[in-house]
Amino acid sequence: MMIIIVALSLLGMLAFYSLIAYVLIRFISKKAFKVTLTKLEIIEIITWVALIFVAFYTIRSGSSSMFLPSVLLFITLMNMRISNRKQRERVKQECT
Predict the structure, then answer these.
(1) H or E, element range at 38
(2) What pLDDT score does 11 carry?
(3) pTM above the 0.85 mark?
């Protein structure tokens, strides 16, 4: 029973901090850079920051079993970013 309570509290903390990060990224992008980001772009930024944090933590702790998946996720996210950029350019060309 105690494990369930701990797991729920960890999920609650994750959801709360993700919401705070979402609001702060949206606020900073609007005020400082005068750019309105979409929800997917904000979620992508949060994912990048989380992966960078995991990578630095695994380097610090010396755990290669966690570092390899984070590197593979970096590669996947970079490829996704490139394909999304190409798709946005294609949509812009179709609209004009």
Answers:
(1) none
(2) 93
(3) no
